[in-house]
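For anyone still unconvinced, we reproduce a single protein record, the chain in one-letter code, the fold tokenised, and leave readers to judge:
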Amino acid sequence: MADGKSVNALNSRRIAVFNAKGGTGKTTTTHALAAGLAARGRRVLTFDLDHQGNLTFWFGLKDTRPGLDEVIRQNTPLGDAIHPTTIAGVDHVPASPFLVAADPALRAKMGAETWLRRQLERLPDRWDFVLFDCAPGLGILTIAALAAAGEVLAPVQPSVLGLAGVARLLETLDQAREGVNPDLRLLGILPVIVDRRMALTGEVLDQLREHCGPQLLRTTIGVNVRLAEAPSHAKPIYDYAPSSTGAADYAASQGMRTTNIGGGNADYVMLTDKAGEAARERHWNDLWHYPLFRLVQAARAHGLMAIDGPFGDYQDPEGFRAQANRTAILGCEGKWAIHPSQIELCNEIFTPPAKEVARAEAILASMKDAHSTGSGAASLNGVLIDAASIRQAEVIVKQMAMINAKSAS
């Protein structure tokens, strides 16, 4: 290179997701950050540095060999331990239970603290971001990650113990700067597992704000069951439950420009091509379309009902109706109603029209008659009934039966 810089993975933006305390959402944060960056066209390499292998499990990797253990104990080239994931643009170096034995093996190496940094020097400049999912505690792999990283993102639970751990966290970072990485900086402290129903949460956040100042990120990640469920489906939170508050919280943490829950953004538009001096038209796009489409696909694949998330502005029934109609067309069976005024609209939009139900019943009846007479193909009003029409009819009839059963109870 003309500027004298080496071309390797150290040119990437390197972030260690670190907190010596366990149970602070490090893996959830790493996974969400990787998926969010990839969705924005960034190339990401992730490292699972915990022998529990939770990040590796979440990525859905079945074959974890070779992994980080083999790189440390068998001198396998790090490049051979990089596996593609189900998320386009995200590669992963997996962990396994054998990583427990790798810790003393790494300690025995000369310059153990800088071993991971030297490994990155041997990788090509292929990724925009390198993320380290650090294990709890302060083992040699975590120290090596702090030596290799340029920044630290620290998830912290706003509790009494979490507050006490922040002082130790900042002290650890000071020691890392003095001992192994003078350029290491704190990207931010991210409040996670935030339960605002508890008065203590607000008090701890106020103390964190007073103690940490601008280092405490404004975005908070609330308690959300969907975040806990997503790993079992090996899906990013944005795909598993894109309308959940968990998805919204992590989207906000990455700077996604939307403040209207379930709504749009006036800048998310396409312009028509130039045509002389004529004014160009603006066509709005639905920034939630892709995640909702993936949600419906995932629900269908697992035999679940797809329910769209909330629409925050309950004083905008027209906007609610438009969003609900879009999700109903995509295949959602319902939508959250967060205000009494939205309940009637939900029932109206997600209840199949009588004409549509009657046609669906007629399609199924024609198919049944065709089977009973052995005529093979079925038709309705002179139009051949295909397999897709039958499946759609079954969905509508089943949905109406569920609604009727619920009304009767």
Summary: The first strand starts at residue 13 and ends at 17. The radius of gyration is 26 Å.
